[in-house]
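Hey, can you fold this?
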Amino acid sequence: MTVSAFTEQTTPEKLLQSWAKVNGKKALYVEVNIETFTALWTNAGVDILPKMMEFHRYMDKNPWAGSENILTKDDLSVEGLLSVEESFEVLKSQMCCFKSC
């Protein structure tokens, strides 16, 4: 049996904006074609990242493909899960232990 679940639905743009807000940065999400991406990221752009980009585009159009029912935290009455933004806050506080913030 497979159970598909998630705590928060987001997009790459929203994910980036959450990170930027937590870190006090300005960020702009710009989607580019694979050729431009490869020119920016060299070997990583050729090997790994284009596949990741294709996967994320597919999942954006077909979230949880193959599952008819999505189990949510509300279905399970689960409380206390962190949002994406709250998770970035926790990560930021943990990183401050290793460098001066």
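Oh, and this one too while you're at it.
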Amino acid sequence: IGLLPEPARQANGYRAYTVRDAVLLARIRRLTEIGLSLDEVRDVLADDAGRELAEVLGELDADLARQEREIHERRQVLAVLLEAPLASDGPLSPALAALLEHAPATTSPAAAKDREHLSLLDAAGDGAGAELLAAMRPLAEDPEVLVLYERLDELAGAGVDDPRIAPLAAELVAAVPDEVLAMIPEGEPSTTGLGRVLLDDYPPAQRAVVRRVMEALAERVRTRAHRRTP
């Protein structure tokens, strides 16, 4: 795929790969696992080109340590959910029930997944507050949002380097009004802990879109919070 140059063949016809090649291959795998496109991976590798092997190994080790912490967080969340199994058709809070009642009917799998995630968060006691859910009502009723869901559906079988990912993520972020952002606490939405569990429920290209959306919204929330700080 052109991310690493192929070494020259030896007299026996085999290519001679080095330890650095093996480390970079591991790094490529890690970068693609967290949702980077091939072009973004290529940029990262270009930055690594002039660095010492020990430095690259150290960064790879740090990446693996972060991954280990994230897995631990996900297992903690799952343990909580397993202690109190949740029925998918269980009762919803009045605020979430009202939000879903006013959302237009759709056959979009992505929209259905979004509602499942909201229901899970609501039942687990880790969901949005009543005021935030009320503020989301215009967003849920917007027919243009259904079009965005349908575009997300189209990425179900796509790769993480699909060119539709970035523009769709940008449009989804732009669709969220400031009234909703004003009620989201700083540091949210988070892509760790339960957020990571929900992200893993998506196939690769859709996960890349949702991750971009979550990170961009968290940045908008952080920017608003800092503007309010005297």
